[in-house]
Design a protein that fits this description.
The chain contains nine helices and ten strands. The strands form three sheets. A six-stranded mixed beta sheet has the order 5-4-3-6-7-10, sandwiched between helices. A two-stranded antiparallel ribbon has the order 1-2. The protein has a two-stranded antiparallel ribbon with strand order 8-9.
Length: 296
């Protein structure tokens, strides 16, 4: 097993004690991890209610009848397998490598983490790379034994193309009609498209999480002097004079941009987390995602 995306063994053991939280009641097959507030046949007892004509007599509690002389039904919570779809930005802007880890490698590690969590709990995990369109996805299910094919799939990906989040979301809706958990991992350098994509996810009833990944250099540049900056996706160039003051001003604007992405997610009922590649991915997952109510 030589994949550069192989997660640390101790980290994988720790993930066995972690659950991906689901905020919404989503339709799915009977399973053992994600609990719905929908009542019906299931694995876990929930409550009693009085029997009414037409109810299924198989759910009658005869012990209660012997004690009380009244007919009561047992109500169970329906538990669901929920599809987990991981939309992974592979556009050219994700190909950013500074003194820390490559931004795209970091994003792939996060995708692998969520895929592993889904497989642990017998959910179906689908990794869907995208740039200005969707690329061929990988769908895996059947438990942790399917984790290695997921790692190999991620290790074969590379960055290319421009970012078009609205077109991506529109195509995603056409290909994946059932509701589920959608984890969108991107640098979100398409702010207008991000807002429209989030609105589409909300209208379709998905439980979605926006995962913004960026390098420390993208938040606060360290280079100074006269620089020629080139857009990684379009090739457009601009000459700028970068000083300590302008770097501080840039950082403020970058953080304002990140705050707008967060507000878009929260306003539409989703969740948001920001990952800086200088922070080890294990620490980000186990601390930041837990405090952000993404994991428990």
């Amino acid at each position: 097993m030589s994949s550069p995306l192989l997660l640390d063994r101790e980290f994988l053991k720790t993930l066995e004690q972690v659950t991906l939280l689901c905020r919404n009641d989503l339709a799915g097959a009977a399973g053992a991890e994600h609990r719905s507030r929908t009542h019906g046949p299931g694995l876990e007892f929930s409550d009693y209610r009085r029997y009414s004509f037409g109810d299924d007599p198989r759910s009658l509690d005869w012990n209660a009848y012997l004690r009380l002389g009244k007919l009561f039904l047992k109500i169970y919570q329906t538990e669901l397998h929920i599809p987990v779809r991981i939309l992974l930005d592979r556009s050219q802007s994700m190909d950013c490598e500074t003194s820390g880890e490559s931004k795209f490698t970091y994003a792939c590690r996060l995708a692998a983490t969520f895929g592993y969590l889904a497989l642990l709990h017998l959910d179906t995990a689908t990794v869907i790379p995208f740039a200005d369109k969707l690329y061929k996805p990988l769908m895996v299910s059947g438990g942790r034994d399917r984790f290695w094919p997921l790692l190999q799939f991620l290790s074969d990906l590379s960055c290319a193309g421009t970012t078009d989040l609205f077109s991506t979301a529109k195509e995603f809706m056409g290909n994946f009609s059932s509701r589920g958990i959608v984890i969108l991992i991107s640098d979100f350098f398409d702010e207008q498209g991000s807002a429209r994509a989030v609105e589409m996810l909300r209208s379709a009833g998905h439980d979605f999480i926006l995962m913004q990944v960026h390098s420390a250099e993208e938040q606060r540049p360290t280079a100074t002097g006269e620089l020629i900056l080139e857009d990684a996706e379009t090739g457009a160039q601009r000459v700028v004079n970068c000083s300590s003051d302008s770097a501080s001003q840039y950082e403020r604007r970058f953080l304002e941009f990140s705050a707008r992405i967060r507000r878009v997610a929260q306003r539409n009922g989703g969740r948001y987390a920001r990952a800086v590649t200088s922070i080890p991915y294990q620490e980000f997952v186990l601390r930041s995602l837990r405090s952000g109510q993404v994991l428990a």
